[in-house]
Amino acid sequence: MSRLRLRHAARGALAVLLPLALLGAATGPARASAGTWAAPVVSRVETTDPVVFLTVDDGWFHDPAAAELLLDRRVPASLFLLPGAYAYDSGYFHRLLDHGRVRVENHTVGHPDLTTLDAAGQRAEVCGARDAHLAEFGDGPRLLRPPYGAHDAATRTTARACGAKAVVTWTHDLTTWGGRTPPAPGLKAGDIILLHFNETLEQDLERALALADAAGLAPAPLREYVPE
Ligand SMILES: [Zn+2]
């Protein structure tokens, strides 16, 4: 190869490498603060504080006893609600927001597996729920929990475009499913616990709080622990 052709080859390689380097910078550690790229996926929070995070999904079953527990013990739970689940009784959640320490977060409009939708479909689901929450509660959600925990690259950019700073999954599902008590994990600082608004929510909350207490951990507000 002549010197001239070598120089051309080198320049060609550089032209390929440069955009890759820029891409690497944009999707690397600086991503979270970039603001416009993709939201990070969070299944537990890196923290040395003795805290755990309680999250409660969907919102269909409005158990008064579970609400009393959340209010009495001032539990800073994150509620990932579906708009349809408060359309017929929003008072249940307004009371929790007005008198408790809960926040309402995003769980989409129709609970689809987001990975089956294209970017426009995902955006309709996620921004739609954001708009509904904002209209009902006057507070826009900042966290997105994708139904079934299913997410792809489009989910992460969609989350950011619809005002969420993170896509939040979970560390432990402590929901009683089908009458079966889930195994008791050794909770660690930063763990995210998944519960649901179902018939067993009060006892599931009691159990999660007792497990946290036994591990020397207290519930903390997840939104405040996820960086912008
Ligand atoms: Zn759900």
Question: What is the topology?
Answer:
Elements lengths: L2 H25 L3 H4 L6 E2 L8 E8 L5 H9 L5 E4 L1 H5 L3 H9 L3 E4 L12 H19 L5 E2 L8 H9 L4 E3 L3 E2 L18 E5 L4 H14 L3 E2 L2 H4 L3
Helix pairs in contact: 3-8, 6-7
The site of zinc ion has 5 residues, from strand 2.
Q: Could you explain how this protein is built, in words?
A:
With 228 residues, the chain is an alpha/beta fold. The chain folds into two domains: 1-33; 35-225, Glycoside hydrolase/deacetylase (TIM Barrel), CATH 3.20.20. The protein is 43% helix and 14% strand. It has nine helices and nine strands. It has helices at residues 3-27, 31-34, 64-72, 83-87, 91-99, 119-137, 153-161, 201-214, 222-225, and strands at residues 41-42, 51-58, 78-81, 103-106, 143-144, 166-168, 172-173, 192-196, 218-219. The strands form two sheets. Strands 2, 3, 4, 7, 8 and 9 form a six-stranded parallel sheet that branches. Strands 1-6-5 form a three-stranded parallel sheet. Mean pLDDT is 88; it is low at 1-35. The protein binds zinc ion. Zinc ion (ZN) is lined by residues 57-58, 107, 111, 147. Zinc ion (ZN) binds next to strand 2.
